[in-house]
Amino acid sequence: MATIGLKDILAIAEQESAHHHHYYIGVEHLFIALTKLQNGLTNAILEYTGLEPRFVRYSIRQTIGMNENRRFWPGFRETPRTSRVLKMAQKYAGLHTPSERDLLLAILDEADSVAVRVLQEVGADIPKLRQIAANWSTKARADVPDVPIDGYVDLNADERRVLQRMFRTHQRIVVERELAGSYGNTRLLVVQPMRPQRAEARVVVKIDERSAILYEKRHYDSYVKDTLPPTTARVLDNPSLPEDSPLGGLKYTLVQPLGSTNPIDLRAFADHATPEDIGRLIQHSVYQSYAGAWWSQRQRYRFGVWREYEHVLPAALEIAVMRPSTQTSYTEISPLGAWSRSEDIEIGQLVDLRDFTVQKVRPDKGTVQLSAGSGPEAVNRASKVEVIGLGDEVKEFRRGELVPRFTGRVIRRRKEILLEQAQWLEPLFDLTEQNLPAPAPLNSLPNPLLHVNNFLERRVSGYLSIIHGDLHLGNILVGPAGDAWLVDFALTREGHTLFDWAVLEVSLLCTVVGPRMPEGWDGVWGTIRLLEAVNSHNADLVSQGDPVAQALSPIITLRKVVEVNLARTQQWREYHVALMLAALRGLSWKNSASLDVRRLLFLTAALSVDYVLKAEKGVFSTQGMSELPTDGTGTRMPFDPMGGDTPMYERDSPDN
Amino acid sequence: MEPELIVKLMVMSGPDDGMEIILSHSKSGDPIPPGLLGRYTIGRRDNSDVCIPFDTLVSRLHATLQRRTDGLFLVDEGSRNGTFIGRRRVKDPESLDIGQMFRVGQTWLRVQSIE
Questions:
Q1: Domain residues for B81?
Q2: In chain A, which residues touch B (CB < 8 A)?
Q3: What is the DSSP annotation of A245-282?
């Protein structure tokens, strides 16, 4: 430690500043530099007080944001506040060069800096930090022995380190179960922490890629925390992020009484419960507990469907990287604009992407996912591009980083990706035809693949509210008294209210309906016939003793929730647009959903397209459903009767 | 003679973090609209009373501070990226208290004193 002086710290601060195109030295850059010192005092006291240096660093970076690459002055000028802090540090150092401790004390004493504001935001007690910093001696650092981990869940070394760091003050922990919400590299674990005399309340731990964990915690603090109903899972502690590990962990604390019991997720619950019980739970425990804070906000919202739903679909383009060259001409693609939903871009075309943000980095596959535009929110996640064949270069990309320019050749478009996914279904019909032949009485259904862009380009009137963003059965925990608790808030946001319900219906189709279907296309078509009866509110057909019909009962219950959240009474198109896109997403679940389930989702999408097209032709109004309003003379008004005079909700630009 | 009305602001982020700005009379020379005791412009333009030249998310005329008999008000002047108090976007004029932080573009400002 003694070998690192002020000069080195300033050099690290300049690096940090240059990386974000700031070109000035603020107190925030100085503080980040302190957290980058190996075995430094700053890291030691942050960790001692339960703050992860990495998370603090990440939060500061998120707060200050990134500038355009433009310099207004040479070198790195100090801000007025930095000058004050450096002067103060010199005062503490006396005749010596200021040490890390002098600088840290000066930063903590200059209470108004961005660094201190962020520290307070993430729960630091500044006077206490200062006191510890002033009195810290390296001897106080005793190496804590590894916490023993018991239980039957297989964990790899990185995952064990995340848990050990998270529970370092406990005597031991028992990892009781893995929840079904786990997917990909993400694991959701039920953990029982033990103290010498007693067992503590169980918690749910999510282990995921470090950047995903950092993002979720910051997102939770900024947007989710204050909107949760009183009884739910909460993220109270800082994430656990072991040094040199690709993984991180987040702890969901379950408010009593669920914490004292052994929670299971709704997907596991569904194995034993009757479909009716599942429906009741969704309506009474999930909907009614959260509606007040979330879904019932009912702000009028007129939106382009792509804004809310495009991100559930595969990337709009898959491109192979190519070095920019002046000899060739590129089609420039800017974040805004309908390029991702147009048919204009051809395979083989050279494209030049401007101002995209790195959304996902997959070192194992050598791919990077870019999303259009900058800023963390859903609007910008909508239009995605997948870059393939990067090899080792993927390591140069950091999630959340802005890529000003990227050139490549189009390999596939969303159309081809979806077509390939649909081919995996081994269809007995031609996937390029307008209509799919269907058994009587349906006879034919529109091919959903040919309606994707058209659906995304629609404008819909609905409600805006806070939504969970990924409401599948694995993210709903169930207590013994039938209470429900939601976990995983990484995608919680303000969005189309019906988004959550369309996603939940798809999850019910996968988990509750799918396993009860007879095998093969015949079983799937039989189920689709029943679902068609649900869509047209023909309850009689569904109430037969047939097990598939019974399995649809939670969906009928769910539709009651949807019904009261439709922007216009009995106008179900709003929901079927959502359901169609949510169902098509399931085509990519090759590893997690059975072939028949994916077939079911494909035809569910077809059925919803059918509904929307028929509703537009006014088919349902003859049945007294008044699907399209009339202007009094009997003339039907066009789709989207609210017209262009309704002000569209405009999203606030996200905080930097 | 009436005592001069002074508003002090502090820049709370960016390259000018920690700088104090004293607003006493309007630099831009615009006449003070009737009903106001003072009006100060915030923007990227050189002659703004609060000039924020280095933040490209700040509009040329971004917002104004309006001194009224019943306090100091923050008014967004149709800026592209918005004016915020905390996370809330300012739509109608909002009154500011001493110690309150607000944001234009990426730059945070705080009201130090109103005399």
A1: 7-114
A2: 22-24, 26-27, 64-65, 67-68, 70, 72, 77, 79-84, 112-114, 222, 652-653, 655-656
A3: -SEEEEEEEEPTTGGGS--EEHHHHHHHS-HHHHHHII
The answer to whether position B29 is within a domain reads: yes
pLDDT, mean of residues A201-213:
88
The reply to whether B28 touches chain A by the CB within 8 Å rule is no
Helix or strand holding residue B72 (H, E): strand B71-76
Report the residue from B15, B57, B88 with minimal CB separation from A24.
B15
Best A69, A72, A86, A112 residue to mutate vs chain B (most B CBs within 10 Å): A112
CATH of the domain at B76: 2.60.200.20
pTM, 2 dp = 0.75
Whether A68 sits inside 8 A of B56 (CB atoms) is: yes
Instruction: Give the count of domains, chain B.
Output: 1
Q: What is the pLDDT of residues A498-543, one digit of tens each?
A: 999 999 999 999 999 999 999 999 999 999 999 999 998 876 766 6
> How far is A74 from chain B, CA to nearest CA, in Å?
13
Q: Are A46 and A37 in contact (CB under 8 A)?
A: no
**Residue A196: pLDDT above 50?**
yes
If you average pLDDT over residues A289-302, what whole number do you get?
88
Contact status, residue A102 vs residue A31, Cβ threshold 8 Å: no
- Nearest residue of B to residue A78, measured between CA atoms: B15
A319, A299 Cβ separation under 8 angstroms: no
Give the separation between CA A469 and CA A582, rounded to whole angstroms. Answer: 12
**Position B70 pLDDT exceeds 90:** no
Closest CB to B18 among A72, A81, A222: A81
Helices (H) and strands (E) in chain A, counts: 24, 22
Chain A contact present for B13, CB below 8 A: yes
Q: Is residue B44 part of a domain?
A: yes
Minimal Cα distance from A110: which residue of B?
B18
CA distance A430 to A437: 9
Q: What's the pLDDT score for residue A261? A: 65
**Does residue B1 sit within a domain?**
no
Q: Are B56 and A26 an interchain contact pair (Cβ–Cβ within 8 Å)?
A: no
Question: Per mean pLDDT, which range of A89-103, A594-608, A622-636, B32-46 is the poorest?
Answer: A622-636
Residue A650 has pLDDT above 70, yes or no: no
Residue B2 domain flag: no
Report the complex ipTM: 0.88
Q: Does B17 touch chain A (CB under 8 A)?
A: yes
Distance of alpha carbon A488 from alpha carbon A265, whole angstroms: 12
Contact assignment for A112 to B12 by CB distance below 8 Å: yes
Per residue in A146-193, pLDDT (tens digit) is 788 988 888 888 899 899 989 988 889 999 888 876 666 788 898 989
Which band of pLDDT confidence, cut at 50, 70 and 90, is reported for residue A653? very low
